[in-house]
Write a structure and sequence with these properties.
This protein is mainly β. Helices cover 6% and strands 45% of the residues.
Length: 83
C-alpha cells in the first residue's frame, strides 16, 4: 500500500471507481450483453450477473441495464462517435 493511502480511504475512493473481472457474452438475437463478474472491487458484485440491452443506430451506441439497481433505478449509457 502506498504511504499516502490509508486503509480508511479505500471505501471513499471506491465510491467513485468500479473495477471487476470476469466474462462477457452477447446474444445477438436478444440484443443483450451479459457480464459475469468473477471478482469485483465492491464485494456485493462478486459472482453477480449484469444484463444490459444494447442498441446501435447510426453513430450512437446505447446500453441500458435490464436488471435495475436495488433502488429501482436503471442506468442508461449513450456513446456517440466523434466527428
Amino acid at each position: 500500500m502506498y504511504p499516502f493511502c490509508r486503509h480508511a480511504h479505500v471505501p471513499v475512493v471506491s465510491d467513485f471507481f468500479a473495477a471487476n473481472f470476469g466474462t462477457w457474452s452477447v446474444s445477438e438475437a436478444d440484443k443483450v450483453l451479459t457480464q459475469r463478474f468473477e471478482g469485483a472491487l465492491r464485494p456485493n458484485n462478486d459472482r453477480a450477473d449484469a444484463r444490459t440491452s444494447v442498441s446501435l443506430a447510426g453513430d450512437e451506441l446505447k446500453l441500458t441495464t435490464i436488471n435495475p439497481l436495488p433502488t429501482g433505478a436503471k442506468i442508461e449509457q449513450v456513446y456517440r462517435r466523434a466527428k
